[in-house]
Design a protein that fits this description.
Length: 335
């Protein structure tokens, strides 16, 4: 076997530490992060630089970052296997982001649905960072020559622009960046709000019952599922127009591994009440050990610090190689 075929594929992903981690983040992205660790060469990050595109309160931002870091470890991200760092600790990200800004077109950034959504939600602060956010995300990914990027379906468009920018850059300068692929789960790639199942489950949901957080107590989780919006069909089956039930089936399937057909027969003749209870319990059970482990590690600041510092050193050295290569090709004089 040649060295090339022996090399494990590289995986990179990041999540913004901007408040509680949701069931959507967990099923759409995090579960795959954990699963991919054995088979692939994974590098993960908390995208703290991305969070300031929306105004943050300093003390809250600090605790959000440590909370998210500890929670991801509790979910099974293992920094011994997969470096897991804090984006702002590795200066190559901001540097390559500036460069990629100059290879990204105004027109393509204007088409980003996340920009359109977020600029509507934060109409008083439509800053340039919010607009150029995809260039920073592209830098995150391209610095590590990632083959695959595990994300939820809402990030596909950002992956597309990353690929376009990388191809454009390679077209001018030769093969500098690996062209990455999105890795989106088959079920629960887009977990919807429990209260408004036509919209994605999001921490910025104004109705708190719409969004389940990984750290919600089991009773709260079960209550939120009991209140989930469904329809008047009263039959557990996957079909067009049954957004609420389809969403619950996706969540249940993702957690239990059961197919939609299995779920339909399991609940044949039963009402929505039973189904909602079962989904709530399955989610609460899945999250129980994570919550326990989180309690154990959150206050161990020394351990957390050792993990993120070591990870940042590793990430710095890998990413510096790509940054240097890109800068040299452009015509910068390296120091
Ligand atoms: P916001 O709620 O403010 O839109 P977000 O949760 O989408 O933020 P991130 O925390 O950066 O933003 O998302 C992290 C990861 O979770 C991404 O890979 C994203 O695709 C995934 N994700 C987020 N929400 C969902 C969802 N409802 N269903 C599936 N995956 C999701
Ligand atoms: N924009 C992403 C978070 C993110 C990311 C990344 C995801 C920042 N950098 C690099 C994958 C790869 C989001 O989920 N909102």
């Amino acid at each position: 076997m040649t060295e090339q075929t022996e090399r494990k594929k590289r995986v990179f992903s990041a999540v913004q530490p901007s408040g509680g981690v949701t069931l959507g983040n967990y099923l759409g992205a995090l579960k795959n992060w954990v699963k991919m660790q054995d088979e692939f060469d994974c590098i993960y990050a908390l995208a703290d630089l991305h969070t300031i595109t929306v105004r943050q309160e300093p003390a809250k931002m600090r605790s959000n970052i440590l909370d998210a870091y500890a929670l991801f470890l509790a979910c099974g991200v293992n920094p011994e296997k997969s470096p897991f760092f804090i984006q702002s600790h590795v200066n190559t990200h901001a540097q390559l982001a500036w460069i990629l800004n100059c290879y990204t077109q105004f027109g393509e950034l204007s088409r980003m649905t996340q920009f359109k959504d977020k600029s509507q939600k934060h109409a008083d602060n439509v800053n340039a960072g919010l607009f150029t956010y995809p260039a920073l995300m592209a830098a995150d990914i391209l610095l590590y020559q990632a083959d695959m990027v595990p994300v939820g379906a809402d990030q596909r468009q950002h992956l597309e622009i990353t690929r376009d920018v990388a191809q454009r850059f390679n077209g001018i300068y030769g093969n500098v960046f690996k062209i990455p692929e999105a890795y989106v789960p088959k079920t629960a790639a887009r977990v919807m709000s429990l209260q408004d199942p036509q919209n994605k489950m999001s921490k910025s949901d104004t109705n708190i019952n719409g969004c389940v957080y990984i750290l919600d107590p089991p009773e709260t989780i079960i209550k939120k599922f009991k209140r989930a919006v469904t329809d008047s069909d009263a039959c557990v089956r996957y079909a067009d127009g049954k957004d609420g039930i389809n969403n619950l089936m996706g969540i249940y399937s993702s957690i239990t591994g059961k197919s939609f057909a299995d779920i339909e027969s399991e609940f044949a003749g039963k009402g929505y009440g039973d189904f909602k209870q079962a989904v709530g319990e399955a989610v609460a059970e899945e999250l129980r050990p994570i919550q326990q482990r989180y309690k154990e590690i959150r206050d161990d600041k020394q351990y957390l610090e050792a993990c993120y510092k070591r990870s940042a050193e590793f990430a710095q050295s890998i990413s510096q190689r790509t940054l240097d290569k890109a800068m040299k090709k452009i015509g910068f004089i390296l120091k």
